[in-house]
Amino acid sequence: MSAVFTDINPASYRPHALHASDRMWPETNCYVDLWIEVLSSFKTTPEAMLGFTVTQDFEGDQFTFFKTPLEDIETLYGVRCTELAIFDDVETHVHVQIGRGRLAMLELDSYFLPDTQGTSYRTEHGKTTVAVNRLDSENRVMDYFHNGGFYHLEADDFDGIFQRNRPEGALPFLPYTEFVKFPASVPSDTHLRQEAARLLRHHLARRPETNPIAAFAKVFPAQVEALADRPFEHFHKYAFNTLRQFGANFELLASHLAWLSPEGAYLPEVAGALKISEQAKTIQFQLARAIARRKFEPLSAALEPAAAAWDDVMAGLSAKVS
Asked: What per-residue confidence (pLDDT) applies to 294?
């Protein structure tokens, strides 16, 4: 069974430090987490790509589902990612790309992914992105990156993920797919730091014009009040797309700034970003209590420290990044 990265296997794989269990948000969202582990397996530094996190905004009903721009990944690492057209059997396309040393990133159904045990595995259908490192269609096994790790699936899960048992005459399985082309060598640390600093300047100029956490605070109590009248499973989906998104985003920003300046030039901004992340975590735990007591107004004030920290972080970066 061929593989893109031949020196890793699910049984002994150790996730990158950005997914350490002692972080406030050991997992962020499927796309960024995936790139962290892929770049780590390429033996390069994922922290370099995280300057884009300063652009996260509140979109009225959710925070931006933050995704590393593909042009940033190419600029930093020389790694190219583009859409892969699916016009034949999906497995055939993936085999071809693996044979050329390329990862295929597929949007698949988390219902069949065993690493989602306890959340969606065999209980709930959902869209998520995985990167296939090894594929053996004959023996029905696959090794894949997903979220903050590297996993293995086989047998019925393999059949399910590739919809091998769909009814005769059903429409073909055509997932959205990208493929990743790696350069011949890993970029130097000097290159990464120079380009990361330039990209941070670029993204800082694109930051929201108004404080997104303050905007969220204005509608947060009403959103939670409406949530209180819905089945409990909506609680997790809401929290994921609001508190978890900005909490994880700013913890990654803190890691980026700490890496970008190991001498400590951004220490106040690192502390401010971590404060935002910690506040999001704390408030997430308060949601259930607010819903149970049906007291929602205090939630707005709970976000004030995070909103103030956002102002401080952006002001500090504006003064230092030039």
From this structure: 82
Take residue 135 and report the two structure tokens written for it: 């594929």
Residue, of 170 and 160, whose pLDDT is higher: 160
Residue with tokens 């308060």: 286
Structure tokens at 312: 């401080």
SS3 at position 128: strand
Q: Delimit the domains of the chain by residue range.
A: 17-43+80-181, 190-320
Q: What CA–CA distance (Å, rounded) separates 159 from 123?
A: 17
- Per residue in 197-243, pLDDT tens? 999 999 999 999 999 999 999 999 999 888 888 887 788 889 999 99
Q: How far apart are CA 266 and CA 256, in angstroms?
A: 10
Identity of the residue numbered 38: V
Quick one: three-class SS letters along 36-79? Answer: HHHHHHCCCCHHHHHHHHHHCCECCCCECCCCCCHHHHHHHHCC
Are 30 and 131 in contact, with CB atoms under 8 Å apart? no
113 contacts 161 by C-beta, under 8 angstroms: yes
Q: Extract the tokens encoding 5.
A: 């990265």
The pLDDT assigned to 1 comes to: 56
Strand (E) or helix (H) holding 213: helix 212-227
Q: Give the type of residue at 23.
A: R
